[in-house]
Specification:
Elements lengths: L6 E3 L4 E13 L2 E7 L6 E3 L2 E3 L11 E6 L4 H4 L2 E2 L4 E2 L6 E6 L1 E5 L4 E7 L5 H8 L5 E5 L3 E3 L7 E6 L4 H10 L5 E8 L15 E6 L5 H10 L7 E8 L3 H11 L7 E7 L31 H12 L1 H7 L5 H8 L3 H4 L3 H6 L3 E3 L6 E3 L1 H5 L3 H8 L1 H8 L3 H7 L3 H6 L3 H7 L1 H10 L8 H4 L9 E5 L3 H10 L5 E4 L3 H8 L8 E2 L7 E5 L7 H12 L4 E7 L12 H9 L6 H10 L2 E10 L2 E8 L1
Helix pairs in contact: 4-5, 12-13, 16-17, 17-20
Length: 593
């Protein structure tokens, strides 16, 4: 079935606004109205920037703050197309949903939940007229399906800005059924309801997963074609996600669930929309090297099905759990002390069995469990062969499996599918490539690499319509077909083209395999573009690990511009220029020598 575009992308622009006024919407919500010339189209450093656009009701902009107060030192670098998050020790970022955008008045409204203790809430509490604020985004807007009869909007107080904006602007003509959990009745807001709409307010503590799950289950399921949107504390949404996916069996394109904030043991939610609420990546604090045992035990619990079994039947006695998993009781006992110590499981309230702890609830999320059982986990395990790989000059993956990673994914559709999903964020970085003049003389484009679907989507957003071909082998091409928008537009056989785009095609290839691919492309085109991550993403908490992950996969450290140029030269190509894309990625334009 053809993949449906879920998002529309936007150019990433760094903008400065100032506070115009502040007022309390309710005792629990503070609204800051911002304005400034940067909301209109403007020119900075000789480069024209488009006007601010946030058409989606749940769009997110990234506020830039600084722990030491020096915001200018925390600002990212603005590229001609995109943003580069340069290192900044005290940078803090928080994601927020615009409550209202009025470009005619040049205003942007942001709502902040009061009584939090984070940097964004603290900034809003002290905000005065004229204070400045810098932000980036939004990078994309959600595309709702057409022909819906109803939509359910579910959330806690942090979701109220998005819910309120949806009801004000009505991006689709469908009945809206709203459910909001609030810490007390004073947080309720007047919402723009229409005939046929419903609203349910539930008083519950912030992040109360049990209350949110019970309230969602109590909602009537309307007849007709529908869509469910939910945003709240990330762990509180896990049982909601399981219910909607497993019991109501909502398909992926009729469901959007986003963790807006993450509850710490003692912290309340600081504000709306803190889904990317982390400081800039920093080196781990000095201290003892952590043991890998907890990670291995958590991986084992997922592989055995223990986490899912405890979630499905909380309180199940250990012997019954062992029998359900097909493991002898005494054997499963070796896992339980560490699983309990790290909060994966805890004793049930009646003391008769087990239930999931906070860490176990997180492992119900597909993205979280991929760190233990997916491609990333396999790369981590391959690093147990790092020492001999360094001595032999080969990849740890090859020593661990007997084949290169490229050889493995070429025969394994599931593994290649993971690579494609990892590249989905690439679409937000390709404005610089699709705006390049090279496309003005391109009538046909040959694609290769797991990022090909993102390239097709970016070309579509930019209004570029070259004839598309795919140079992948049978298994990867089959996987890509399920991710590419409008696959009927693609010729799924390779052949000569005006330009070839290799999108993250080298990231799972050794140097020798990379040269083979580039040599092969030279037989089909005189111009090629390599899209690769040439340095760590400055916002990633795992930036320090990027070189090791690359070495595990390819036997080479993260390939910088010079390393990519060397591979191109070996393959008979000349580097014409490099286009910085942001977030550590770049596009290298090659011409056949």
């Amino acid at each position: 079935m053809a993949a449906q575009r879920a998002y529309t992308t936007h150019p990433l622009v760094l903008r400065r606004v100032t506070v115009r006024r502040v007022h309390e919407v309710t005792p629990r919500m503070r609204r800051v109205v911002l304005g400034g010339a940067d909301l209109a189209a403007f020119t900075r450093e000789g480069i024209d920037r488009p006007a601010f656009a946030a058409p989606g009701f749940d769009d997110h902009i990234k506020l830039i703050l600084a722990a030491d107060g020096d915001v200018h030192a925390a600002l990212p670098a603005q590229l001609p197309h995109g943003i580069e998050w340069t290192p900044a020790e005290y940078r803090l970022t928080r994601d927020y949903t615009p409550r209202r955008v009025d470009l005619q008045e040049g205003e942007l409204h942001l709502d902040f939940v009061v009584h939090g203790d984070g940097p964004a809430e603290a900034w809003s509490a002290s905000a005065r007229e004229g204070d400045e604020l810098w932000f980036v985004g939004p990078k994309s807007s959600l595309r709702l399906p057409e022909g819906l009869d109803w939509i359910q909007l579910i959330g806690d107080e942090t979701a109220l800005p998005a819910i309120g904006r949806f009801l004000d602007e009505r991006p689709l003509d469908a009945r809206a059924h709203v459910l909001v959990t609030v810490s007390d009745g004073s947080a309720r807001q007047e919402l723009a309801l229409r005939d046929g709409d419903t609203v349910t307010w539930v008083v519950a503590e912030p992040g109360d997963a049990e209350a949110l799950d019970a309230a969602v289950r109590a909602l009537p399921v309307p007849a007709g074609e529908g869509y469910v949107w939910a945003a709240a504390e990330s762990r509180a949404l896990l049982p909601v996600r399981r219910y909607l996916q497993r019991e109501r069996k909502l398909p992926k394109d009729r469901l959007n669930i986003t963790g807006y904030w993450h509850r710490e043991e003692v912290a309340a939610p600081e504000a709306e929309g803190t889904s990317d609420a982390g400081a800039t990546a920093q080196a781990p604090a000095a201290g003892p090297v952590p043991s890998p045992l907890p990670w291995l035990v958590a991986r084992t619990a997922l592989q055995l099905g223990l986490v899912d079994a405890v979630a499905d039947a909380p309180g199940l006695p250990v012997d019954a759990l062992a029998a359900r998993l097909g493991v002898a009781g005494p054997r499963i006992d070796v896992l339980l002390p560490l699983l309990a110590a790290y909060g994966v499981v805890v004793a049930a309230d009646d003391g008769g069995g087990l239930r999931l702890g906070p860490a176990g609830e997180e492992l119900l999320d597909d993205h979280e469990r991929e760190e233990y059982t997916g491609h990333e986990a396999e790369l981590l395990l391959a690093l147990t062969h790092l020492a001999p790989a360094l001595r032999d000059g080969t990849s740890p993956w090859r020593l661990a499996s007997g084949a290169t990673l490229h050889e493995a994914v070429a025969q394994d559709a599931e593994r290649y599918g993971e690579l494609v999903e990892e590249c989905e964020q690439l679409v937000f970085l390709l404005d610089g490539l699709t705006a390049d003049p090279l496309w003005e003389r391109v009538g046909s484009c040959l694609l290769t690499g797991p990022g090909s679907a993102s390239v097709v989507a970016a070309l579509d957003d930019a209004g570029r319509r070259p004839e598309l071909r795919v140079a992948e082998d049978a298994t990867p091409a089959t996987v890509l077909r399920g991710h590419v928008p409008a696959p009927e537009r693609v010729d799924w056989t390779a052949g000569p083209a005006d330009v070839a785009v290799a999108a993250k095609a080298l990231a799972h290839r050794t140097d020798e395999e990379a040269v083979q691919l580039l040599t092969r492309l030279a037989g089909w085109t005189r111009t090629a573009v390599l899209i690769e991550a040439s340095r760590p993403d400055g916002l990633s908490p795992h930036a320090a690990e990027a070189a090791l992950h690359a070495y595990a996969a390819t036997g080479s450290p993260l390939r910088d511009s010079a390393a990519l140029a060397a591979l191109a030269t070996r393959s008979g190509w000349d580097v014409e220029r490099t286009i910085a894309l942001g977030w550590g990625a770049e596009a290298t334009v090659l011409r056949r020598a």
